[in-house]
Amino acid sequence: MKPFLLKMTTGAIAILIAGGCAARMSVSSHVDRNLDFSQYRTFDWGPADALPTGDPRLDRDPDFNDHIQGAVERGLAARGLELASGRADLLIHYHAVISDRVDVNRFDRGFGYCGAADCPPQPIRYEAGTLVLDLIDSRTNKLVWRGWAQNRVEDMLQNKDTMVKVIDQAVEEMLRQLPRMRRVPA
Amino acid sequence: MAPLTPRRAVVSLIAAGSLWLTASCATLTVNSYAARGSDFRHYRTYNWSPPDTRPTGDPRLDNNRFFDERVRSRVEKELERRGFTKTPPQQADVLVHYHANVSQEIDIRDLDSSRSYCADYDCRPFVYDKGTLFVDLVEPRTNRLIWRGWAEGSVDGVIDNQDWMESRIDEAVAKLLARLPGRL
Predict the structure, then answer these.
(1) Which of A109, A168, B117, B181 is deepest in the core (most CB within 10 A)?
(2) Which among A102, A111, A132 has CB closest to B59?
(3) CATH code for the domain of B92
(4) pLDDT averaged over chain B?
(5) Residue B10 lies in a domain
(6) B45: containing domain
(7) What share of chain B is helix, strand, coil (3-state, %, to 5)?
(8) How far A87 CA lies from chain B's nearest CA (Å)?
(9) What pLDDT is stored for residue A20 in this prediction?
């Protein structure tokens, strides 16, 4: 069992390193390191800020916003925070941005797909999505945590099932980076 | 190409990582303009002008308190090290303003295979995110820009790592404010 697992893991890592075409989500966060996050008990959705604007394709998609809000509410509840309207400790805010990006083909000629002369590097244009999730302390009105997930979004924009999966993965991986909250889920 | 064994993968990861680290450290460049005829000996006090609301081009940095506070505290530290004192904005000799920008760049210098910078199979443009930090000093009496310094370099992987971002901010601010004209 153990060697098998090890093999699977190294295999998965090798695929991650080698595979340029596999969708790779990048997730990270910034945090107020001097803050005790166990003081927070409740959260609510904060007012949308003016800047920066999201992408209209996502802003006008009620499913997209429903899924994000649902995923965030579930994720925070699992970490011991209660949704409270009115006087919540934390205000949640998110926005999604889509931007055009360029990459250069990752299929190295060394793999033998084509010779050097007839195979110039091909730039590839793609759409990268960033989902930013902010936690704001409602007393100080200061940002105390920001998480984000970045991914290619072409598939997600064309397929609702993919979108739901990507959102769930993005929100769950982001929230995993939150500092320890009040109660550790069983 | 030989099959990608785990060992090979680790070796190439380490190699790529160290290359990338040296590249990103080496690429921080700084420059500055100073308004001609400005006598920097007159400037002793400073404060901040109203904050920038223009987007940075990177959603991770827009309205990012952690980035903003680090830049401000480092700029204040460097200015005070150079003899500036923070006073209320109405009394300040100079008002400071900063702006950060991130944009994707494509570098094709490495494509010159005649100089054999790259092996045939790995000759491709280098795509990276370029970050630029501008610091402006404005004389409020005349509303004139008297000095602008900027630092630019690759920020690939930097914003995703809070510690790394902070050390890059420190380095950029120190290097660009080192170009301020002396007051001796």
Answers:
(1) A109
(2) A132
(3) 3.30.160.670
(4) 84
(5) no
(6) 25-113+122-177
(7) 40, 30, 35
(8) 23
(9) 38
